[in-house]
From TrEMBL, chain A:
<dbReference type="InterPro" id="IPR008972">
    <property type="entry name" value="Cupredoxin"/>
</dbReference>
<comment type="similarity">
    <text>Belongs to the EfeM/EfeO family.</text>
</comment>
<dbReference type="InterPro" id="IPR034981">
    <property type="entry name" value="Imelysin-like_EfeO/Algp7"/>
</dbReference>
<keyword id="KW-0732">Signal</keyword>
<dbReference type="InterPro" id="IPR050894">
    <property type="entry name" value="EfeM/EfeO_iron_uptake"/>
</dbReference>
<dbReference type="GO" id="GO:0042597">
    <property type="term" value="C:periplasmic space"/>
</dbReference>
<feature type="domain" description="Imelysin-like">
    <location>
        <begin position="138"/>
        <end position="372"/>
    </location>
</feature>
<feature type="domain" description="EfeO-type cupredoxin-like">
    <location>
        <begin position="14"/>
        <end position="115"/>
    </location>
</feature>
<protein>
    <submittedName>
        <fullName>Peptidase M75 family protein</fullName>
    </submittedName>
</protein>
UniProtKB/TrEMBL annotation, chain B:
<comment type="function">
    <text>Involved in the recovery of exogenous heme iron. Extracts iron from heme while preserving the protoporphyrin ring intact.</text>
</comment>
<dbReference type="GO" id="GO:0004325">
    <property type="term" value="F:ferrochelatase activity"/>
</dbReference>
<dbReference type="GO" id="GO:0046872">
    <property type="term" value="F:metal ion binding"/>
</dbReference>
<dbReference type="GO" id="GO:0020037">
    <property type="term" value="F:heme binding"/>
</dbReference>
<keyword id="KW-0456">Lyase</keyword>
<keyword id="KW-0349">Heme</keyword>
<dbReference type="GO" id="GO:0030313">
    <property type="term" value="C:cell envelope"/>
</dbReference>
<keyword id="KW-0479">Metal-binding</keyword>
<keyword id="KW-0560">Oxidoreductase</keyword>
Amino acid sequence: MRAVRPIAIAATAAAALTALSACTAKSDAKDGDAIQVTAADTKCDTSAKSVPAGQVTLKIENKGSRATEVEIVFPDDRIVSEKENIGPGTKYTLTAEVKAGSYEIACRPGMKGHGVRQKLDVTGSGASAKRNPALDAAVAGYRQYAQDQADETVPLAETFAKAVQAGDLAAAKKAYAPSRLGWERTEPVAESFGDIDPKVDTRADGLEDGQKWTGWHRLEKSLWQDKKIGAGDKKLAAELVTDLRDWQHRVGKAEITPTSMANGAKELLDEVATGKVTGEEDRYAHTDLVDFKGNVEGAQKAYELLKPVAAKNDSALTGELDKQFAALDKLLDKYRPAKDSYDFVSYDKVGKDQRKELSDAVNALAEPLSKLAAAVVK
Amino acid sequence: MTENERSGPSRRALIGWGGAGLALGAAAAGGGVALSDGGLGLASAAPDHAVPFHGTHQAGIATPVQDRLHFAAFDVKTEDRAEFVQLLKDWTAAARLMTAGKPVGEGAYGGLAEAPPDDTGEALGLSPSRLTLTVGFGPSLFERFGLADRRPAGLADLPKFPGDNLDAARTGGDLCVQACADDPQVAVHAIRNLARVGFGKVAVRWSQLGFGKTSSTTPDAQTPRNLMGFKDGTRNIAGTETARLDKHVWVSASDGDAKSAWMTGGSYLVARRIRMNIETWDRTSLQEQEDVFGRDKGEGAPVGKAKEHDAPFLKAMKPDAHVRLAHPDSNGGITILRRGYSFTDGTDGLGRLDAGLFFLAYQRDVREGFIPLQRRLSAHDALNEYIQHVGSAVFAVPPGVRDPHDWWGRTLFSKEA
């Protein structure tokens, strides 16, 4: 590991050389020239595959039958710039400041899915460091996962909110834990939206004096502790759905890097170690094990995506992680009726010795997981 | 220890765990680690506050008692013998570094920014503080890894003694590490880093912090007092009393059968968390306090004698006096080496001080040491009104790590040993 620093310096030097040679690379669009983007229901034609770095202009025309969205995206799917809701038959000019590097132009008919894509090389000085396509694929995969989780969560939250609004205590209780799963699976990404997280997932002890308490845990208290649904709760349920839609809308723009994925996986285990194992998370509903499982699944997803790279650099570490993920999964399975069920045992029924066993298993996984980021950047 | 004395091979030059064995050889040659003097480490302990790690016996038993303790009992979590053996090797490598005042692995800083450092860092800049790390194996360990027939008879289960009120959460353990040091931060750092190395293989079951050693293995120093304000164990075995150590503490090759020969040079450890009823003790008259112990409170002299180290006249004491009951002369010569510490874990929720004695005793055979002694004390000792045993564990403490290639437990786990 000590040798890494010099290697990193060498990599930077290599990137600088690349940047120099890139200066002479030929561009097929002249500086200031706009790229014509012709979007349709199944195609996304672009007039240039290469532009110089700096101000890039897309002249977009939607010739399809549905509204579309056009984006410039990094190879890891992070959005550089975008325009949503370009109606059929309409035009839009999108400009963005773009550094040298490899990008794609994505047209997303119906504003959904992966879209139709074209490569775009941005040439010139200030080239970004050499990219590892395997890591770009991992980040893109995780970005998609985060989006999927948000997409799946919104209808579940709506079911929960409808039950609250109907005053149906039993149905609301039943819908509570499932509505949280997607959020818990992607918590490090979800939490990166500093304005949404406090609104939806704050616990009583996270509040300042005078701060209005909203979100899941406020409703949890009404349902399990107060055992009644008031007018305020119905309003809160509606707000929760609104906030989660905001999350769903913005999650694709989250800043995700290979190391943030790796450390995010570890942070998910930290969440378990500090809040779930103690039963603090869902202190009224005692559905902590559902969140626990969600955190572990999310960590596992990030790990699986990074594993091809990490295994090359440190196969002993990935061997250990495989083993410890399996051990924790097996332990959690003891607390649910079937492997595909999320009806976990109520955490107030989980004894002190069992909590110790869970805590030990979390430590056994989290300690090697804390070394994943290093294995990814080696 | 000065900065100059700390020099020697830089740990930054090490290549992590894999390179530890190689690097340690260099460390010993460079003088960072004092050379073995047969396991006692008395003479060479002084200059840089480091106690030699290598020797016939583990340090932390007969070596001079330090001021502070962090003791931890662990449960084994792995089923894989090879993995457990690797842990013992990793622990040995880490213990070698830490007892020499060096950080674990690649250190606490300067590594990859994206990764947590190998060492937790809170002992940086502190002297080795005479840190000793002593490992022991509990009876339950011998139910694993096909070790059933290697359990020595001297590692006997303790019977239920009258008055015991043992808390399962403070009792037992597959293995233990006793960390003693003059600086509590150094002792805590050692256990914390071993626990970290061990995650996934072992898990901390319980641990105890101790301060104010209550006994000494250097008897020319004044006997320390316990939290009841009394001197106790003034006739403890000294680290220099080779004959008494051989007779009462170190396991001999002739003890037990061939299958327990791996314990030769080791010892058996009994750990008891003894809670004191501090408030009721403090309300007890001076006369009764002195009667209970069989000593005077000021000097620590036995009843009817003038000086602390005067030979006690047992018959002058009350029949239930602690010293009288515990004395070797009342117990057919039973002698144990005591290494206990006071503890205070705040208050107990009822406003009472949660405090007492964390009793640690080493002996050649638990059946001939602690068990008969505690049978007698638990039945008759006047002190019982003021104390309660709330935690208990017993461990086989294997012989010392001989050299930079040796590791804790090799004689038990290595088939060719």
